[in-house]
From TrEMBL:
This is Glycoside hydrolase family 15 protein. Residues 5-156 form the Trehalase-like N-terminal domain. Gene3D superfamilies: 1.50.10.10. Keywords: Hydrolase. Residues 237-583 form the GH15-like domain. It comes from the Bacteria. SUPFAM superfamilies: Six-hairpin glycosidases. It comes from Micromonospora zamorensis. Transmembrane segments: none annotated. One of its GO terms (molecular function) is hydrolase activity. InterPro entries: 6-hairpin_glycosidase_sf, 6hp_glycosidase-like_sf, GH15-like, Trehalase-like_N.
Length: 610
């Protein structure tokens, strides 16, 4: 593969799907239709799984950037013969603006090559591979287009340069770009059956319209806090990972990018986790995405449906699908020869008791919009509280989704406390006196158990599992959800222990033995420091972490503590959400240096001391 690292990629999105473009001008990932659809370009995971490259035929250097307030990518190639700019976009529907962007995209990938100086020889290589590289399509020339049809997918390629078809299902051409000239290429997707030919509009007009669409959306989200540039970029990334028809935010747009090269922790993240839900809503709220907050909560209610006595599913597809059974794609060698490659994620079968708190905390955040409760919301919140009451004593797979084993994870108990605490705060809007009494009793019982069994005298720290001496960064959520104040002596001691044992150069691993720093955990540390009064350290750590993005401002899931290489699925919503929320906490503390409250407006509350 030409690109050696995950951080070499830029990210394009249209509200339904995403594409990744490497620094050499090759589209190596695109799953048109929806984020978790089969790929038509999959070289990200195997050299033979399809790509579309446009690049100089001579040696070049690269400088990349997004056009301001957009996810439209501009790559400038500099050669001895001159300079060329390549602009890439996944198109929005014509004229869509503000919160309408991405609702009905034409599913068109647009690429425009503009000569800036000199005369630069270029090469375009188009190599579609359908169904994750399983199927090679016949390329058929039809007047002004090149059509590829295989199975359920159809691609229509148009360009100002005529491509020559090869014998192995690819097409290529060479051309020269001179200063002041432009060559445009468009690729449209449509299902093979029961759909018209993919619409392929004018490239220049489409790029201009897509730029205007992104900027109109950005203009409606006026974040006023600290680190506005970083928050603005991360807000755009989270928006790009939103499936606009439903409002669901996927964890990432890729599958099987490894947490460790040569390891086996390769997962499909193109789904929506309830665990991430309250963090996502807080980030959207922080970045002034109020409409998105409302749509997110509506999506959750529809996805969960009428909840009965069975455990609530912990994750869903973008339209609320529950069965996400995992399948291996053995035809793909994996990113940098790191198999397995999988679709689906068997974590959907797990018990994760933290989801009760995630959903209830989101409702508490949204209370001004939810009250008075609709009948379905009322039923959902009552069931979540009741299940937290009855399930908190059960072991589970935990926040990090351990497979094949269950433990009494402290972070899961904390989130059960959150569910019960928020239910009690809702008061008689949610339950009668008997309900409130038993929720209060259960909340206090959970709290007492955590304070006793989650604390290690030997480590002088809260730990990841009851009655253990194993440190885990997940306990840093305790101040962030209001379970303990950040300046509580035991919480301060926990932060010191976690930093000492799990942190290196500002990057925090989840547990001892975790192969790399987990980005959102590091941002949790920023928030804990800020809320504990260590503002200077918090700002310094935030700036260091924010500087670890790639050249386009994108985070993966993890960062190698030694090399700084980004690892895991990319881009990662959780990482960008962590940045937004940490910037918000820093803003709160700067505006009120005495602030020791946790949460965020309008959901401030002061947790009790131990």
């Amino acid at each position: 593969m030409e690109s050696g690292q995950i951080s070499d990629y830029g990210f394009l999105a249209d509200g339904r799907s995403a594409a990744l473009v490497d620094a050499a001008g090759s589209v190596n990932w695109w799953c048109p239709g929806r984020f978790d659809a089969p790929s038509v370009f999959g070289r990200l995971l195997d050299d033979d799984a399809g790509h579309w490259s446009i690049r100089p035929e001579v040696d070049f250097t690269v400088e990349r950037s997004y056009l301001e307030d957009t996810l439209v990518l501009r790559t400038v190639f500099r050669t001895a013969q001159g300079e060329v700019a390549l602009t890439d976009a996944l198109a929005f529907e014509p004229g869509s603006r503000g919160h309408d962007i991405g609702m009905h995209p034409p599913q068109v990938l647009v690429r425009s090559v503009q000569g800036l100086s000199g005369a630069v020889p270029m090469r375009v290589h188009y190599r579609p591979r359908f169904e994750y590289g399983r199927t090679i399509a016949y390329l058929v020339e039809r007047e002004d287009m090149l059509e590829a049809i295989a199975g359920a997918a159809r691609l229509t390629f148009r360009g100002s340069v005529r491509l020559t078809c090869g014998d192995d299902g690819d097409a290529a051409a060479t051309f020269t770009v001179r200063a002041g000239t432009t060559h445009n290429f468009t690729l449209g997707y449509a299902p093979t059956y029961d759909a018209p030919l993919p619409e392929v509009p004018d490239a220049d007009q489409t790029i201009a319209d897509t730029v205007a669409g992104w900027r109109s959306w950005a203009a409606e989200h006026d974040y006023q806090g600290l680190y506005a540039e970083e928050v603005r970029r991360s807000g755009l990334v989270v928006q790009g990972m939103t499936y606009r028809p439903s409002g669901a935010v996927v964890a990432s747009v890729t599958t099987s990018l490894p947490e460790k090269l040569g390891g086996d922790r390769n997962y499909d993240y193109r789904y929506v986790w309830v665990r991430d839900f309250s963090h996502t809503l807080r980030a959207l709220w922080r970045s002034a995405c109020f409409d998105e907050v409302r749509r997110q909560f509506a999506w959750l209610g529809r996805a969960m449906g009428r909840v009965g006595d069975q455990p609530v599913p912990i994750m869903y597809g973008v339209l609320g699908e529950r069965d996400l059974t995992e399948h291996r794609l053995d035809q793909l060698g994996g990113y940098r020869d790191s198999p397995p490659v999988v679709t689906g994620n068997d974590a959907w079968r797990q018990r994760q008791n933290d989801i009760y708190g995630a959903a209830m905390d989101a409702a508490w955040l949204m209370r001004d919009q939810l009250e008075p409760f609709d009948r379905d919301v009322y039923h959902l919140l009552r069931v979540l509280a009741d299940q937290a009451e009855q399930d908190w004593k059960q072991p589970d797979a935990g926040m990090w989704e351990e497979r094949g084993v269950q433990h009494h994870h402290v972070s899961s108990k904390v989130e059960c406390w959150v569910a019960l605490d928020r239910a009690v705060r809702f008061g008689d809007q949610l339950g009668g006196p008997q309900d409130l009494a038993r929720w209060t009793a259960a909340r206090d019982e959970v709290r007492a158990a955590i304070l006793e069994r989650g604390w290690s005298d030997r480590l002088q720290s809260y730990t990841g599992i009851f009655d253990s001496d194993e440190l885990d960064a997940s306990v840093l959520v305790m101040p962030l959800v209001g379970f303990l104040r950040a300046d509580d002596p035991r919480m301060r001691s926990t932060v010191r222990a976690v930093e000492r044992r799990l942190s290196h150069d500002g990057l925090l691993r989840r547990w001892d033995g975790d192969p790399a720093g987990f980005v959102i955990c590091s941002f949790w540390l920023v928030s804990c420091l800020a809320l504990a009064g260590e503002r200077d350290r918090a700002h310094a750590l935030f700036r260091d972490l924010a500087g670890r993005v790639n050249d386009l401002g994108l985070f993966a899931e993890q960062i190698d503590q030694q090399t700084g290489e980004q690892l895991g699925n990319f881009p990662q919503a959780f990482s960008h959400i962590g940045l937004i929320n940490a910037a918000g906490v820093l803003t709160d503390v700067e505006q009120d240096p005495t602030l020791r409250e946790c949460g965020m407006p309008p959901a401030h509350f002061t947790p009790p001391r131990r």
